[in-house]
Queue: 2 jobs
Job 1
Amino acid sequence: MGLLLMALIFWTMPPLSASARRQMGRWSIRISIAVVLLVLLRLGLPWLAVIGTALVAVLRFAMPLLIRLLPLWLLRRANAGNAGMPGSSGAGPGFRKSPDMTRAHALEVLDLAEGATRDEILKAYKDLIKKVHPDRGGSSYLAAEVNRARDVLLSDDSK
């Protein structure tokens, strides 16, 4: 009955700021835990109440640490499949650096013919990077490939 009353009060309240919602959420969790523990004590299960209290105390201290470590664990887990592969890098989940790009592959990426001038390379690069850049909804992998293709072609031209 108490939980139903709390839910009714929560849904009929006006919209709150984010900090007020967070604070209200913290207090509602504390009140819910206290109600559950009181019910358990009333039912004659003090051992279960003690275990519940200990669990709450442990989680209170462990959760901030676990929340901080979760992104690192997820990143390590995502990169575990790349371990030992040639060209693998820690650039992000699923991102694999390809081996050295050849001039032919660079020309294919930028859709250029052999003998393209520096201006043609830069124009093709600018046109393509506008389409595949991650800031414009493109892929990080494709943008990296386009950048590498430009670097390969321009470094070959300077030799």
Job 2
Amino acid sequence: MNDPKLNQLLQQWRGVEPRGDFDDCVHRRIRQAAPTPIRSGWLDWLRQPALATAAALVIGLAAGTIGGIRSTPQPNNELQFMAPTTLAGAYLTLRVK
């Protein structure tokens, strides 16, 4: 950076001095521009990592349990001998009528 013209301009440049109440004005503007608090709703608790993790675990366990129960084959009917096509079943239907 051996530009004599630039060096001359930089030597002539004077820094700008801020006003005396600059800090006070900045802090006042920060306070005025502070965001309004977010209204509390039922989803706000999900923003907390521990509660969100617990909720995800509960939902996952419930979905896994329901899926496991539904995917389990149904056991054979233990009372198949009572079907209407069997002797005992036919006898039972005669007796009930």
